[in-house]
Design a protein that fits this description.
eight-stranded mixed beta sheet; alpha/beta; 304 residues; single chain; globular; UDP-N-acetylmuramoyl-L-alanine:D-glutamate ligase; four-stranded mixed beta sheet; binds alpha-D-ribofuranose
Length: 304
Amino acid sequence: MQAKILVIGSSNTDMVIQVPRIPAPGETILGSHFFIVAGGKGANQAVAAARTGANVTFVTCVADDAFGRQAIENYRKDGIHTEYIKVQAGTHTGVALINVSDEGENSISVASGANNHLLAVDMEGVADAFDGAKIALAQLETPMETIEMLARMAESRGIPFILNPAPAANLSDGLLRKISILTPNETEAALLTGRKEVNEAEIAAIGGELLAKGIQTVIITLGSKGVYLCDKEHREMIPGYPVKAIDTTAAGDVFNGALAAALAAGQTMREAIDFAQRAAAISVTRRGAQPSAPFFHEVINFLL
Ligand code: RIB
């Protein structure tokens, strides 16, 4: 039987332009291709978890518009439970404008729209969705009060709470204490420990500082270099899988979704990280956010 996980977060429609390089402020650049794909950190993580084997319930908010209806249809096609999705009138479904460079790097701006209407008070209505969940997974593209409420709900039910603190934001000490697994990238880890940037020689110290805030496990993602795992039993760099990246959009989301699916299925932390790294490596070889998320059999068969 598939393990149940609850993913709470954003749902966006991504408008992507392929550009030779990321434009500087004030600069206009002519791109080569344009495409519209399903995105949003929450949705990407929900889709990645579902494709890699979890029974996913996704809690998000979309508008009553064509993008919102399309998003819900897409989630259903991926077998995701959509009964707790809020539909908000008077706004638009979240939209992200994304430049992807020929080197595979990206810059993203988001108009949150309906995502800002996923409120803490709405979480009372999703309490039943926690029943039987092995893990709850969230990010930071929805209001902070909602994330704090979720952390309390997960804690009171004894359900591990994974927070991917993206995009970067300060987090209260009370919230940090409720997090079972925190998965910042370098920028987010720097902000959370009061630094302007991360010097790699400091990674172990940064992991230790975050653990000292009461988090059980910290996984700092370092792109193609791998991840730094830090908990009671581990303090180690785990290298990633070298691949030729064409689009890194949503690589972190695929990592988080696959990690949650693997942990919920009973894998150890080391096994789950390896599984998630394989999934993320596959995703960067494909274009787009949700279209890049691999299925379980692809992750298992991933060989260099
Ligand atoms: O992490 C990638 C995602 O960030 C994109 O899909 C975009 O929608 C933004 O939320």
